[in-house]
Design a protein that fits this description.
Organism: Acinonyx jubatus
Structural class: alpha/beta
Enzyme class: transferase
Mean pLDDT: 77
Low-confidence stretches: 43-47, 267-293, 303-307
Radius of gyration: 23 Å
Family: Belongs to the MnmA/TRMU family.
Strand order of the largest sheet: 3-2-1-4-7
CATH topology of the largest domain: Rossmann fold
Number of strands: 11
Helix content: 25-40%
EC number: 2.8.1.14
Protein name: Mitochondrial tRNA-specific 2-thiouridylase 1
Largest sheet: 5 strands, parallel
Length: 341
């Protein structure tokens, strides 16, 4: 008799990861649930939200009759995610802590814990994403030490696992998984990749998972929560006041608190006309009206390089003179490229 494959599923205390664990068990796998505590935080009522989420995750495991484990990565999160967030924000860049958290915490710390400590054949999360591997192909993957030196890039090409867009394009989370290592992707299952959010909720309602179904969906940066972002960030970074100066006549237009209140290139707020901001590099900027302008990008085919570095050059001209500025991402941002077909 064949032994059931062991899949360790990350549980957040929310509906997505709960349904992911349920679907894995339905497929006949031996499922273990693991809750990760990554941040010590109190809500507006003085309740630790991580403890509440942990209780919800534990209750999911009770309903599904699967083992439950809890791990703490508070120290790792502070060093690898939050410290990086503060450093980048202070430099005026636009960090995305969710991308960094997936890379260093969920698909590194948790991944190694599941494989090395719990003996997992594969790990799973409730992300809305897919990969180019079928379930059985994931279980056939063996951990291969990445070679150093000359053949390192060629190794990546020959063994590349593609990260694919989820069926629910609105909930698709491949952007936030863009820096997950190939080693982790090879041994990861995404049970919700082919489902819509509405169908996931329907599954939860039909399987006694009402306590997670009723929870409000988390949005934004996890460690900020419902707090005012400026008040939160000023607990860790000192403001650096400065002035808005016209590039035409060096006239002082106003003052700002500087990073972290106003990163270079940011938009000051709602306005009747199109707002613009002046950054320290001296370029006038407007918010970009286009998400997809049909501009061809120098991107290699899927079996080519796995990353492309862009070094755009700024152009200076008077705003309103009829000439278009150059559209592009702010410094420090990550973009996601999807292949059609």
């Amino acid at each position: 008799m064949q032994v059931a494959r062991h899949v360790v599923c990350a549980l957040s205390g929310g509906v997505d990861s709960a349904v992911a664990a349920l679907l894995l068990k339905r497929r006949g796998y031996q499922v273990t649930g693991v809750f990760m505590k990554n941040w010590d935080s109190l809500d507006e009522h003085g309740v630790c939200t991580a403890d509440r989420d942990c209780e919800d995750a534990y209750r999911v495991c009770q309903i599904l009759d699967i083992p439950f484990h809890q791990v703490s990565y508070v120290k790792e999160y502070w060093n690898d995610v939050f410290s990086d967030f503060l450093s980048e924000y202070e430099k005026g860049r636009t960090p995305n802590p969710d991308i960094v958290c997936n890379k260093h915490i969920k698909f590194s710390c948790f991944f190694h814990y599941a494989v090395d400590n719990l003996g997992a054949d594969a790990v799973a999360t409730g992300h809305y994403a897919r990969t180019s591997l079928e379930d059985e192909e994931v279980f056939q993957q063996k951990r291969i030490k990445r070679p150093e030196g000359l053949f390192r890039d060629r190794f990546e090409v020959r063994n590349a696992v593609k990260l694919l867009q989820a069926a629910d394009s609105f909930k698709d989370q491949t952007f936030f998984l863009s820096q997950v290592s190939q080693d982790a992707l090879r041994r990861t299952l995404f049970p919700l990749g082919g489902l819509t959010k509405d169908f996931v909720k329907k599954i939860a309602a039909e399987n006694r998972l009402h306590h997670v179904l009723q929870k409000k969906e988390s949005m934004g940066i996890c460690f900020v929560g419902k707090r005012n972002f400026e008040n939160f960030i000023l607990q860790y970074l000192q403001p650096r006041p400065g002035k808005f100066i016209s590039i035409e006549d060096n006239r002082v237009l106003g003052t700002h608190k500087g990073p972290p209140d106003r990163p270079p290139g940011s938009v000051p707020g709602p306005a009747a006309d199109q707002p613009r901001a002046l950054d320290r590099r001296g370029a006038a900027r407007r918010p970009g009206p286009r998400q997809d302008d049909g501009v061809p990008l120098p991107v290699p085919p899927p079996d080519g390089a796995s990353a492309v570095r862009a070094d755009p050059q700024s152009r200076r001209h008077r705003v309103g003179d009829g000439r278009e500025g150059r559209a592009g991402p702010r410094p420090g941002t990550v973009c996601r490229l999807l292949q059609r077909g």
